[in-house]
Description:
- By secondary structure, the protein is an alpha/beta fold.
- It has a single domain (4-240), classed as 3-Layer(aba) Sandwich (Rossmann fold).
- Helices cover 45% and strands 15% of the residues.
- It contains eight helices and seven strands.
- It has helices at residues 18-28, 42-54, 70-84, 107-135, 146-150, 156-176, 201-204, 216-227; strands at 9-12, 33-38, 61-64, 89-92, 138-143, 181-188, 238-241.
- A seven-stranded parallel beta sheet has the order 3-2-1-4-5-6-7, with helices on both faces.
- Strand 4, helix 4 and strand 5 (138-143) form a beta-alpha-beta unit.
- Helix 1 (18-28) runs parallel beside helix 2 (42-54), helix 3 (70-84) packs parallel to helix 4 (107-135) and helix 4 (107-135) runs parallel beside helix 6 (156-176).
- The chain starts with 8 loop residues before the first strand and ends in a 6-residue tail after the last strand.
- The structure holds NADPH dihydro-nicotinamide-adenine-dinucleotide phosphate.
- NADPH dihydro-nicotinamide-adenine-dinucleotide phosphate is lined by residues 13-14, 16-20, 37-41, 44, 66-68, 93-96, 116, 143, 145, 188, 190-191, 193-196.
Amino acid sequence: MAGELGLKQVLVTGGSRGIGAAISLALGTAGWRVWLNYRSREDAARKVAARIEAAGGPPPVLARFDVGNRAEAERAVKALIDAHGTPDALVLNAGVNRDGLFVFTDDASWDEVLATNLTGFLTVGRPVLKGMLRRRSGRVVVLSSIAAQRGSPGQVNYAASKGGLVAAARSLALEVAPRGITVNVVSPGLVETEMLEGAPVKQLLAYVPLGRVGQPDEVAHAVRYLCSDEAGYVTGQVLGVNGGMWM
Ligand code: NDP
């Protein structure tokens, strides 16, 4: 169902940079009104919004909030829904990594990674799902990671959060399927964004059959499909966009 002005609306968390920016562009230029969330880099968020408008897409709604801050995120999402209605799709993309060996992991970085990556699923997802359930339609796409599936040394905190998202998404998919809402996971491998800076990419490419890192828009196209009407019979799935990377 479309919202105000007959436009389909999507909330994209972490839409200001990297994969989230590519998702915002892919959906915005396909005619969706994007509610573009970011946490700190307003300049980057504005640039993405300008690119969408320049390409003829509807003007995005910029929404600054920290998905890991329960009170702030719930307040902001509620205000968005009050102003614009329930979005047709929700893309839970915002994520952080704080890498290091497990034994040296401090409490603060564990808490930050879990709060942003996993608790964000609750704080942003809950108010949106309430509206989708009432409306009996909706698309939810969650960004996990190859780290959740094959493990990743130095990323125990990150892998725990991303594995939790897969389990949460699969369970939610079962809960909401009777109301016509789909919930799927996109699980990227190595994608060229700021998050990949500092990672041992050359070493890791040995595990990528296609022999290269992915580009953000290659992930965005998968997300756009899962948000589309055409994906109505796809739910509870984990779609790897990883160049064939596995064990
Ligand atoms: P980037 O670091 O390039 O971008 C992260 C985005 O998330 C930014 O827009 C940032 O906004 C936003 N963000 C971070 N923390 C918060 C927060 N607390 N609240 C709101 N927004 C926040 O990451 P990627 O684009 O690489 O990653 C996107 C998703 O894909 C993540 O979930 C990541 O885990 C996953 N992924 C990425 C892979 C890769 O190789 N790049 C591989 C596998 C999964 P701001 O700039 O304003 O802080």
